Amino acid sequence: MDIKNKVAENETVVNMTVSQKGHTLHHNGVFSPDGKWIVFDGRNDDTKIGETATIGMVNVETGEERIVYQTTNQTMYGPGVGAASFSPVRDRIVFIHGLPNADQEKPYDITRRTGVAVDLEKPMTPVFLDARDIAVPYTPGSLRGGTHSHCWSGDGNMLSFTYNDEMVDPQLRVVGVMVPHEKKIDVDVVVGNNHGEMYAAIVSDVVAEPILGTDQINKAFDECWIGRKGYLTSEGQHVPYAIAFQGNVLDEHGVTVTEIFIVDIDIEKITADTSAVGKVGERPKVPQGIRQRRLTYGADLSDRRHWLRSSHDGKYIYALAKDEKGNNQIVRCDVNTGELSFVTNNPFSITSPFNLCKESNKITFVAENNVFVYDMDRDENLRLTRNDLNDTRVIGIPSFSPDGEFVVYNQYERVGSEEYLQIKRAMISDKTSVLKP
User: Fold this and answer.
1) Can you tell me whether residue 339 is helix, strand or coil?
2) Could you report the per-residue pLDDT of 246-284, keeping only the tens digit for each?
3) N or C end of the chain, less CB within 10 A?
4) 79: preceding bond cis by omega (within 30 degrees)
5) Which residues touch 105 (CB under 8 Å, ≥6 apart)?
6) 396: Cβ contacts below 8 Å, ≥ 6 apart
7) Strands 131-132, 142-143: parallel, antiparallel or unpaired by DSSP?
8) Following CA atoms 255, 211, 233, 356 in sequence, which dihedral angle do they give, to the nearest 10 degrees?
């Protein structure tokens, strides 16, 4: 069916999908490099990755839906797939994949999943990216838990992820990376293991019990790559790869405060320290020479879950923080100085994670069940939708099209007594209503 015929009442909103199933968008990389396809997973409920069997995509121009990957032997316990993202440079999609041996006793879980890719020229053929090795001695370049929320670097060479170990301190979330490697990471062929195409390592230093008032963290999470090509230090040195992540510290009174941390990614140092894989009774360690630094002091980022975002030139990191009224607003942090300033001053609270456009001068988010675009150059909010609080829910994270002409987002559509999560497109046009912040 031609999506151009499915125009909403305000003439700017179009249904991209109509099939009676879930179409969940990930928080990043939903468009193919040429902008013609949008990738989604088959969830109709954000919490149901373990029960979800399909990764699909929809054509932006025709509305054609295709399944590009489907699990085998899928049950309510797994394996499950979800959270799919296109590479920025090739027709490859990465997504979370539960372990093939998932069952009632060992179902899909945060410590039992891995990163899998599928190439569009070879649909249905999984490529396991991070090796998983639970047989001692552990293989350098492998992990033994669950990687998730994968995010491509700007050049598509590497992936970041968050991770929970299955063997030691599974509740401690950390940030890791997959980097290119001259050969695959081969592990013993045992249940729970899989080979990997890339070299995986942890890059955030996390402790179970941080010392009060220090830079120690007990959780590293919801990261982003800094810039499309890294960033320049205050001394003018170019750092080609770096990650900003959120880290929970404890202040002098034992109160959890979320700050921004940065870690520079050096492939040679990561692959050189083979002992970082760890031994029995240890979590994987940060490779020698890889050090995180705390960027902010007193940022106290919002407890609304969101992922950090970087400007394309690597100068700024964007996040959510609460204003004096307790509303979630966008804040901007200088990568070198840690100086933090509010970008938005909305009379309402942002209720979703957010994304930046390619040029980094517009931000899209959800508030009051509507999709907004904030134009930083004009200091204007554009409301792209006309929903009220009684309409079906807008959920998840809106994303800009590569050309910046429209935003895609998730909203439930009611069919009889059922609701199905669909992908919608909202044009950014002169007809869009303007709300001064």
Assistant:
1) coil
2) 999 999 999 999 999 999 999 999 999 999 999 999 999
3) N
4) yes
5) none
6) 24, 25, 27, 46, 352, 366, 409, 410
7) parallel
8) -30
Rounded distance, CA 428 to CA 382, Å?
8
Query: What would you measure as the largest C-alpha separation in the chain, in angstroms?
Result: 62
Nearest CA to 408 out of 82, 19, 29 is that of: 29
Q: How many whole angstroms separate alpha carbon 289 and alpha carbon 387?
A: 51
Q: Do 207 and 218 touch, CB atoms closer than 8 A?
A: yes
Name the amino acid, one letter, at 416: G
Residues 327 and 346 sit within 8 Å (Cβ to Cβ): yes
The rounded distance, in Å, linking the Cα atoms of 320 and 339 is 15
Of 58, 99, 53, which Cα lies nearest the Cα of 74?
A: 53
Q: Using the structure block, give the residue that is written with the tokens 């100086």.
A: 339
Amino acid at position 159, single letter: L
CA gap 265, 38 in Å, rounded: 29
Alpha helices in 88-150 (DSSP H): none
Neighbours of 163 (CB within 10 A): 30
367: amino acid identity, one letter: A
Report pLDDT digits (tens) over 328-338.
999 999 999 99
The alpha carbon of residue 184 and the mean position of all alpha carbons in its chain are separated, in whole angstroms, by 25
Angle among Cα 262, 267, 269 to the nearest 5 degrees reads 85
Instruction: Characterize the bridge pairing of strands 145-152 and 142-143.
Output: unpaired
- Separation of CA 364 from chain center: 15
Q: Cα(68)–Cα(5) distance, rounded to whole angstroms?
A: 26
The size of the chain, in residues, is 437
Element (H or E) spanning 272, and its range? Answer: helix 267-272
CA atoms within 13 A on the CB side of 259: 23
pTM score: 0.95
Q: Which two tokens stand for residue 141?
A: 């370049």
Q: Say if CB 223 and CB 162 are below 8 A apart.
A: yes
What phi and psi values does residue 292 have, to the nearest 5 degrees?
A: -85, 155
Query: Residue 430: which residues within 8 A CB-CB, separation 6 or more?
Result: none
68: pLDDT strictly greater than 90? yes
